[in-house]
Amino acid sequence: xxxxxxxxxxxxxxxxxxxxxxxLSHISFDLMPGEFLAIVGPSGCGKSTxxxxxxxxxxxxxGTILMEGQPVSAGNARxxxxxxxxxxxxxxSVYKNVLLGLEIRKEVTPEKLAFIDEMLxxxxxxxxxxxxxxxxxxxxxxxxALIRTLALKPDLLLxxxxxxxxxxxxxxxxxxxxxxxxxxxxxxxxxxTHDISEAISMASRVIILSAxxxxxxxxxxxxxxxxxxxxxxxxxxxxxxxxxxxIWKELNKNV
Length: 255
Ligand code: ADP
Fold this sequence. Notes:
This protein has helices at 47-54, 94-104, 110-122, 138-150, 168-185, 196-202, 231-234, 240-252, and strands at residues 5-16, 19-31, 36-40, 62-67, 70-71, 79-82, 156-160, 189-192, 205-209, 216-221. It is α/β, with parallel strands linked by helices. The chain has two domains: 1-78 and 158-168 and 185-255, Rossmann fold; 91-153, no CATH class. Strand 9 (205-209) and strand 10 form a beta hairpin. The chain binds adenosine-5'-diphosphate. Adenosine-5'-diphosphate (ADP) binds at residues 14, 16, 21, 23, 41, 43-49, 212.
């Protein structure tokens, strides 16, 4: 099977009047179709920079990033990006918010509207389609943001700490929901998180980045001893804790 995404020997430095900040150094990894990858690393090591390179918002100084063999470029509709902040527009209803990406891309078709209706009802938001974002809970807002992203039917989803603004209980529930949604859709995703448990519970591989400039310190394949794995049930796997300890030790080498 060919990788969906190939990141090869990528380096990036930021240049400003105060000098040069080297953010990423010789990063290489693949993402296979349907795979869920998590990236953890010390704060400020370059995780968001890496996602910005993958979606083409930044250009690598050295190295290449290919999606299905083609260099990634800005505005690539095949890559969906979800951030910590949901960026829902208060003056638009929930329905109008989830429709926004399709409107901008002029892709409002009966099939895509039916797909949105189905997702709103599956994820408990159909009763809130005329509500405004401030009337929703944090978890509902993140679900709406996810539906807005999935409406564009991206081939790859980038998630940059999408649950970190939520309280602990909501965070567990929403990450479970979102993990199941992506699992069901067999949607490949890359999740950046500082939460080791979240990374293990959702991903099939965890990439540990070193302190800045980030290099790949270790890639840990996750094979949990549990059937019908979901993000929540993963946490009960007997070997969950040993993965936690392994990743914790690796991250602490940076301290
Ligand atoms: P992380 O997501 O791991 O917290 P970032 O990718 O946001 O880290 O940033 C990596 C490093 O690059 C940080 O030291 C940050 O201060 C620096 N950085 C990020 N964006 C810029 C920029 N536009 N100009 C200069 N430095 C930047």
